[in-house]
Amino acid sequence: RRLIEHFACNADFKDWMLFMHPDQQQFVDADYSGPAKLSGVSGSGKTCVVVRRAIALAEKYPGEKILVLTLNRSLAALIQTLVEKAAMESIREQIEVLPFFRLCQILLEKFEPDNCRLYDDVTWKSEEHIDEIWREYYCCELNNTDARVLQRLHDSLISRGICAENYIREEFDWIRSAVLPSERDVYLRMERSGRTYPLDENFRRELLEGLSCWERKMRFVGVTDYLGIANALFRHVDQIAPMYRCVLIDESQDFGTLEIRLIRRLVAERENDVFLCGDAAQQVSFKHQNLTDAGMTVHGARSHRLELNYRNSRQILEVAHNMLVDNLSEQMLISRDFEVLDPKYANFGGPVPLLLDAASPEQEFGAAVTFARLEAEANPAAKICIAVCDYSEHELEAFSSRVQLPILNGEAKLDEGQVFLSDLENTKGFEFQCVIIVNCEASAIPNPYAPQDEAYRDLSRLYVAMTRARQQLVISCRGTPSPFLEKQMFRFLRCTWSSYLGQGTELHEIDPPQRLEELRENPSAGDFLNLTGERYLYDIRAIGCPSTLIDKLRNLITGSSRSVSGNPTEWRTISQALKDTNANVRSRQAFGPEGYRLFRERFIQAQRES
Q: Which pLDDT score, from 0 to 100, does residue 193 have?
């Protein structure tokens, strides 16, 4: 035990990842009569077990192929590096490490050789990212109004303070992870496990129509997403024959039912066929998962746990685990597969976690980058990660180029740098001497525009990022920290960034990452007064708009002008409607007393500022 703790504090990252404890080794060497599952707390060495077990199976079955799968491209690259370090060359040739997306691409290149350019997350036609294509589709841009079928649900969601664009995209993922394209009518009546906003049958029919249009849009522009590529591959499921002797799945909690059904086809049913490794507390996806429905029944004798944390100092694990327990929701507890494993703490200690306050976004990002580089200079062997809350991988990519830091997106290699940038989700599977979590404030995490009962996914993301830190954890915010941390504040040393870094440190401010709207150079992103009602309702500032006002905005501010008896009753833009209703009492009648009151309350201050 003391040797393991020494490795945790002093070893090279890859050496530490491959050091085995007897409790882990037993699952490397075990033989199972069918699919087996290993659950483990964060830092228990699950990825290490997967790597070592893949090598052991390759040795057990000479000349036969062993597949290691994960969803995260960065994690797949890391596992490949670990295999190359730990295995002899002859064994390495037997082991294939792939992210699931790439596996689907390889198979679709075989089944649909003429369509291979369709199956990427960046369109070959315009180099647009899938996030940009989604925004284009959802907001009915470029004369494509297919997504208007979703507007009734959109209005219902935003009137209740929910970001409809994100929620509907997540619902599309849930649908495609749960049922086959040919069986989607089942969705009209099925229980939506993990989803809390009620959807009647009419809403569900509209969602299925909108999903069909979204899939058509992706095919047209030559792009796809994770669930899209899985559904495309499932069209050829009967042609998928066993290709591997064994399949090992790392971070299995984030694979959906449909994906696991596809994986089941890759390997014949026999001993040591499938090994699933994961932690339900780290589930961040919006997918339906039922192993039995996926044909992957794991009997109790083949289900095991790892409870000893080898990675984190006691100080870090205490704050992360207690934060998780403090915020457990009913949705987490009723899940058939969710189980919070109580970790056994390693005895090694480290610095008290830091909670540092910034005066502005520019100061916060500048301070985080400065601190990370100072830590790297002080310890040239250290690996450091700046993880950013409430930003997507795509939004962070341009920022990473600007600050000249590699981003964990599947391209970066840990050997080629010291300081890395990441969103919360892509930190999964990695570990760093120091993790700095930026933008961890009440207005960012949990997402204020998501259903409160589904905040547990943001909780899982934050827990994942916190537990990547081996020795030093820094939480950064501006003002009020995330409410997830409320009961654990006493475990932090709290001060300002400027005080902590000291007067001798030159602190350069850095502009924060740009949002998707800014990356798309949308000229209407700032001036919403010149939008139609429909366009405004796609803006994040419309979230929380009362349903009465939503109806008036859609029907009265249409992009066309109309008057009755010389009185304006329909408008091109919000600004024109404000001007006319302010000057003309008869024009107000189009809104009605309550509608006009809500209209003025929402827009009049913005007009004055403009």
A: 85
* pLDDT digit string, tens, across residues 567-596: 999 999 999 999 999 999 999 999 999 999
Q: Which residue has the tokens 């005895």?
A: 347
- The three-state secondary structure class of 326 is helix
| Adjacent-strand bridge partners of 494 | 355
Q: Would you say residue 442 has pLDDT above 50? A: yes
Q: Are residues 16 and 7 in contact, defined by beta-carbon separation less than 8 angstroms?
A: yes
Give 10 or 168, the one with higher predicted confidence: 168
Task: For residue 495, report the phi and psi dihedrals to the nearest 5 degrees.
Answer: -165, -170
- Name the CA radius of gyration of the chain, rounded: 26
Residues in the chain: 610
Provide the 3-class DSSP secondary structure of residue 355. Answer: strand
User: Angle, to 10 degrees, between the axis of helix 226-234 and the axis of helix 257-264?
Assistant: 50
Residues 574, 557: Cα–Cα separation, whole Å: 6
Given a cut of 90, whether residue 176 has pLDDT beyond it is yes
Three-class SS string for 66-117? EEEEECCHHHHHHHHHHHHHHCCHHHHCCEEEEEHHHHHHHHHHHHCHHHHH
Residue 440, φ and ψ in degrees, nearest 5: -90, 65
Q: What is the pTM of this model?
A: 0.89
pLDDT at 583: 93
Amino acid at 245: R
Spatial distance between the Cα atoms of 343 and 346, rounded to a whole number of angstroms? 9
Amino acid found at 206: E
Give the percent of the chain with pLDDT over 70.
Answer: 91
Per-residue confidence (pLDDT) for residue 138, from 0 to 100: 97
Q: How far apart are CA 261 and CA 211, in angstroms?
A: 21
Four-residue CA torsion sign, 500, 392, 74, 272: positive
Which residue is listed with tokens 């199972």? 32
Instruction: Encode 562-578: b = buried (16+ Cβ within 10 Å), e = exposed.
Output: eeeeeebbbbbbbbbbb
Tokens of 103: 């596996």
Compute the distance between CA of residue 610 and CA of residue 605 in angstroms, rounded to an integer.
9
Which stretches of 310-449 are assigned E, i.e. beta strand?
Answer: 354-357, 384-388, 419-423, 432-438
Q: Which residue has the tokens 């180099």?
A: 127
Q: Quick one: average pLDDT of 186-213? A: 95
Half-sphere exposure of 182 (CA within 13 A, CB side): 5
Identify whether the C-beta of residue 384 lies closer than 8 Å to the C-beta of residue 433: yes
Q: How far apart are the first and last CA of the chain?
A: 65
Q: What is the C-alpha separation between 229 and 117, in angstroms, rounded?
A: 12
The confidence band for 346, taking pLDDT boundaries of 50, 70 and 90, is: low
* pLDDT tens readout for residues 256-265: 999 999 999 9
Query: Which residue shows structure tokens 């390495």?
Result: 92
Q: Which H/E stretch holds residue 451?
A: none
Tokens representing 382 are: 């250290």
2 vs 213, more confident: 213
